[in-house]
Amino acid sequence: MIPSYLVDFDLSSLPVVETDVLVIGSGIAGLFTAIKAGEERRVLMITKKSLLESNTRYAQGGIAAVIAEDDSPAYHLQDTLIAGAGLCRSAAVEALVNEGPDGVKELIRLGTAFDEENGVLALTQEGAHSHRRILHANGDATGYEIVRALAVEANEHPGIEVWDEHFVIDLITDHGECIGALVQKADGSQVFVKAQATVLCSGGAGQLYRYTTNPEVATADGVAMAYRAGAVIRDMEFIQFHPTSLCYPGAPRFLISEAVRGEGAVLRNVKGERFMERYHEQLELAPRDIVARAIVSEMEATNSTFVYLDITHESTELIKHRFPTIHETCMRYGLDMTTDWIPVAPAAHYMMGGVKTDLSGESSIGRLFACGEVSSTGVHGANRLASNSLSEAIVFGRRIVERVLTLPPLAPIRYEHFAGGIGRKVVAEQRPVSERRLRLQKMMVRYVGLRRNGVNLQGAMEQLQHELHYFDQMLTQREEMEYANLLTCAWLVTTGALHRQESRGAHYREDFPQRDDVVWQKHSLQQREQAIVEELMS
């Protein structure tokens, strides 16, 4: 049983800090939402590391928006709906494609320097996009440039206070509304942050898996705390694996952007054979789930742990100009992408599901909002289209602030009524939490990864069931709480994957290999203390 709260607490005995808007997380979603809210409200932004450490920072390819004259929102809409495999919410996608260009203009106004060619914004193409509509910065360092610009703005903004190195433990609710959060400081002490509105911008869950393109901080904190608070969580079975992460001894699983294939790179197995024609008519530019599974199939057929990405037929000048970060990183490990084939393999990349929101970013709990990867707005469906995530964060960040500005003041709170936990007496086990985490990650790769089946998923459920006693312990360290959040998210993903008896988008069942629109064109909803339920498409 997953509890309502991770730790025991009594609000009446804790120091209280009050703010108008509490923003949890510092990627593009958190920074942009904080800046927009800070124009009219006091904002407190909490990040468990620093402003520059988030998934956004590692986003290479770019941000998708209709800029070119030969492109249109209708084309972008169609591409997104196709990639989403029948589970996108059309109204959410319409908001994205129509409001995305203005969001890009806002980023430029806030200091983001996108690449230009001949005085106009440079656009590239990525997998499953029908047109060139991907803006990029410094070649392949788009995310870093956006976060850099927004972090400068946030740090200098008089309406924004930033708490680095703070960890949000749990959300506090009262009569169906979120009234703030329980926060742990760097010294281990706790404080209650009371807020008129709370916005989860805490990113994804890449650390659920042994191999991921995500940073260490991506431990599913936001989804887990929202679930514990009673929020509706949607479509958690859909985890996107990026087809091409660097797979080389001594090197991290560094993302090799989809844009490399967009610029003409081809995939070869270890025999040197180009293979994508056997899997999809769009070849290397097929949707990510298809490319990722094709790579795994080739790895198995050739008894290898990787395939090759080959862009050596392009000019050295183009490669160095377009992909300076990737080129430099590969060179650090003795790989020259201008002359060498790069060894790559799939890695966990993006969580399509998350906290269910409406078109204003509000969750099923009043005053609790979600933005960015932690949210399920309906934009991505069963498979996110490349570079739509940064656009989504901007579009829905702005919509959230518009809604927040209409909220009435919170009713007075009687703090003595708030105490959480279950009187935990058991001290955390001496076994390092790092061992538990690694064991969980390996199990998720093996049983709940790119290819799934009922037997393995049931085995995963049984292992997770045995591990739930972890919540009975007294958790004091950040790493212990992060593991509790990963365990919660693993339960949600596995439950959703076992429930959905079909293959759709990023969810592939070997025992149900076909997409079944008659029975399964609907969402999976999960809520604490309730069985999984299905929601028809809206």
UniProtKB/TrEMBL annotation:
Any one GO cellular component localisation term in the record:
cytoplasm
Q: What is its EC number?
A: 1.4.3.16
- Catalytic activities: L-aspartate + O2 = iminosuccinate + H2O2
Query: Which residue range or ranges hold the Fumarate reductase/succinate dehydrogenase flavoprotein-like C-terminal domain?
Result: 437-528
A single BP term in Gene Ontology: 'de novo' NAD+ biosynthetic process from L-aspartate
Q: Does the keyword Oxidoreductase apply?
A: yes
Q: Which family does it belong to?
A: Belongs to the FAD-dependent oxidoreductase 2 family. NadB subfamily.
Give the protein name, as stated in the record.
L-aspartate oxidase
Naturally occurring in which organism (per UniProt): Paenibacillus amylolyticus
